[in-house]
Amino acid sequence: MSQFTLRQLRYFCAIASTGSISAAAAREHVSRSAMAAALDELERILKSQLCTRHKSHGVVLTASGQYVFEQALSLLRSADNLEATAGARELAGPLAVGCYPSLAPTILPQLVKLFERLHPEVELSIHPTDQETLLQQLKAGDLELAIMYNMHLDRRVETAWLYDTAMHVILAAGHPLADCDVVRAKDLENEPLILLDAPPSADDILSYFTAQGLSPTIRHRTRHFELARSLVAQGLGYSLFIQRPRNPSSYEGLPVLARALDPQPHLERVSVVWPAGRTLSAKALRFIELAQQNVASYAPEALYPSPR
């Protein structure tokens, strides 16, 4: 019979997530000595060194520690789910959700409002960042879920489908191609491109041109979705986006026009993502359920109307 406790596992997961015994102690509101003692006792029970401790670099998990961390996360969430189901109690506690930056302003506000209205005891936190960082934070246990595009994902993650969309071109109202309902890729090759230089969007944009045997003329690069839209609205170039905000204007109030592309790009899937094989908490499962029921209605399907 195992002698470790759920508290010891929770403390160990806090150490693994923060990379520091002191930071873990602060997060769990216990003393550093109590946190260190829990780690020592867990290592004694499991008869395995779970991490190496460095004064200047904090804590680094061993291979055994990484395995125990993954299993402990699943066990703790299973215990939480059992308590919630058996006790029929309201969902409560922290839930960290990441999101790809360009998706966040469009779909998250309404979803967060709905989730918090239905489950006010859950401490929902939102963390927008690039896809590579999201995947790292999911693996580390800093995030339980993330919303992102299905680009370049592998079998190390599981996904729940939300909706499909496709890349389009955005133009200023006075752009020579603004009168076209559909813009040909070859007509964009020599036009200045405002590249949304955030992975995986940049790769997807450049791959689209490469597939047509074209090489775009990049004028500006930015990782910021709204800055790219504002540069386009000022007439400094065009950009290719996947996400379509409902607001057809830039921050300055200038019109931003969306047009379909020829050839038509492949569909991109927006999904909720989590590490493969990891047990999700009841809170996370409920978040996924509400996202699948509602998020598609938050994502505009029609192109922006022309101001003419």
TrEMBL record:
Q: Does the keyword Transcription regulation apply?
A: yes
Q: Write out the GO MF terms.
A: DNA binding; DNA-binding transcription factor activity
Q: Which GO terms describe its cellular component?
A: protein-DNA complex
User: One Pfam family this chain carries?
Assistant: LysR_substrate
Q: Which InterPro entries match?
A: LysR_HTH_N, LysR_subst-bd, WH-like_DNA-bd_sf, WH_DNA-bd_sf
Give the HTH lysR-type domain ranges.
4-62
Classify the source by domain of life.
Bacteria
> Which UniProt keyword terms apply here?
DNA-binding, Transcription, Transcription regulation
Task: Spell out the SUPFAM superfamilies in the cross-references.
Answer: Periplasmic binding protein-like II, Winged helix' DNA-binding domain
Indicate the family of this protein. Belongs to the LysR transcriptional regulatory family.
Protein name as catalogued = LysR family transcriptional regulator
Upper classification of the source organism reads: Bacteria, Bacillati, Actinomycetota, Actinomycetes, Micrococcales
